[in-house]
Design brief:
Blueprint (H helix, E strand, L loop, with lengths): L67 H7 L5 E4 L2 H14 L5 E4 L11 H12 L5 H7 L15 H13 L5 E5 L7 H16 L3 E6 L2 H6 L3 E6 L2 E4 L3 H27 L10 E5 L2 E5 L4 E7 L2 E6 L2 E5 L3 H8 L4 E5 L2 E4 L3 E8 L2 E6 L6 E4 L4 H8 L3
Parallel strand pairs: 1-4, 1-5, 2-3, 3-4
Antiparallel strand pairs: 5-6, 7-8, 9-10, 9-13, 10-11, 12-13, 14-15, 15-16
């Protein structure tokens, strides 16, 4: 398996600089704290929890909210990642500007195109001067892997490169609060890993990240609490009831598997066991061979199977699918996800509580790995 993309050492270890009013730049003003250089790898092997369901209680006490304003105020000073549409995204942006107006904020919007006649280097040099800090354009260019594009005009950048440039812009100001709109939308596997490492590193130092976008899978990848919207209300992606239900289901499943082992032996020989996963595509019913499925996810109380980069809704529950597909090499990596282990190309650890799986499917999907299941996943993959 390939490792995570390496970054230049020594980047972003800076002292404080001047601040500017929100109306003149995408940052609010307040004193700047020094930033510790990034550490892109850290061994938490010996710090894994002993309780396999410990991660399931992460947002157990989180209430639901009736408005964006309630959500931002109720989860004040916490990193939150919200699955929502564009209209709600604009409301979240307005709420963040209002609630955190006394903090130093950085904003990344889908509409951020940069100064198209500038080169990447001149664009970032401008913002480095604006920030007034000792952070240099060269350091953020190195850190975000833009060296080969530093003399390229912004107009000629790909959407992925432009996103990385804007992340570098935000890093120049050492923000206390970061708002990102659909930050993973344009990113390939390496850039996605780089961005998630940056978020993880900054979160550990106390930076608050608020992200909006779709699908929920992306919200679950990032350090902090994932939320989703339904009919104007906002719900935590993880709840105590789900955790207790999953723990009970796991116990019941263990007993049922013991019984089913005997059944399997009894039917060994010439009899062939057929397994198909039912899914919907419009008015048609599809039957997928388990080997075709990359992963299965639960989104807003609906279950979807991912096949060749497309999602298809299935009437089965995650517990039913887990019970049926375990014998085909599937693993319950998270309360909301079941993964085909044969598709796992990379296991990444960003912080003590943040693990991701990168798949070898057509979309190079990233899905969350619950920290309480990380060790079992390593054993399943035969990792030492």
């Amino acid at each position: 398996m390939t490792g995570a993309r390496q970054t230049t050492k020594g980047a972003l270890g800076y002292t404080k600089g001047a601040s500017f009013p929100l109306r003149t730049m995408p940052l609010t003003s307040s004193p700047v704290r020094p930033v510790i250089p990034f550490r892109m790898t850290k061994d938490f092997t010996n710090e894994l929890p002993t309780n396999p369901h410990e991660d399931d209680y992460m947002t157990a006490n989180s209430p639901d909210y009736n408005s964006v304003e309630e959500l931002i105020q109720g989860e004040l000073n916490k990193s939150i990642h919200l699955e929502c549409g564009r209209e709600t995204s604009r409301s979240v942006l307005a709420a963040v500007r209002s609630v955190y107006q006394k903090k130093r904020c950085a904003f990344y919007l889908e509409s951020d195109k940069g100064f198209e006649r500038d080169t990447v280097r001149s664009y970032l040099k401008f913002f480095a001067r604006l920030a007034g800090s000792k952070i240099t354009a060269k350091e953020v260019i190195d850190h975000f892997g833009l060296n080969k594009k530093k003399n390229t005009s912004v107009l000629k950048l790909t959407p992925e490169e432009r996103a990385l440039m804007n992340f570098a812009r935000m890093a120049l100001f050492e923000p206390e609060v970061v708002f990102c709109e659909r930050p993973l939308l344009e990113l390939g596997p390496d850039s996605r890993s780089l961005f998630l490492n940056w978020i993880a590193s900054e979160t550990e130092k106390g930076t608050i990240f608020i992200t909006v976008g779709e699908p929920l899978r992306e919200a679950l990848l990032m350090p902090g609490d994932a939320w989703w919207e339904e009919e104007g209300r906002f719900f935590p992606a993880q709840t105590l009831e789900d955790s207790l239900g999953e723990t009970k289901a796991a116990s019941e499943e263990e007993d049922s598997l013991k019984e089913s082992d005997n059944d399997t032996i009894a039917f060994a020989g010439d009899e062939v066991q057929v397994c198909k996963v039912q899914a919907k595509a419009g008015s048609s019913t599809l039957l997928f061979d388990p080997r075709e499925i990359d992963f299965i996810e639960s989104v807003n109380r609906q279950i979807f199977v991912s096949v060749r980069g497309e999602l298809y809704q299935t009437p089965s529950t995650l517990d039913e699918l887990e019970k049926e597909l375990t014998r085909f090499g599937f693993f319950r990596c998270h309360r909301s996800y079941i993964v085909n282990v044969q598709r796992v190309a990379k296991v990444e650890r960003f912080t003590r509580n943040s693990f991701n799986l990168t798949l070898s499917d057509v979309a190079h999907s990233s899905i969350p790995l619950a920290k309480g299941r990380a060790e079992e996943m390593r054993a399943t993959l035969g990792m030492k």
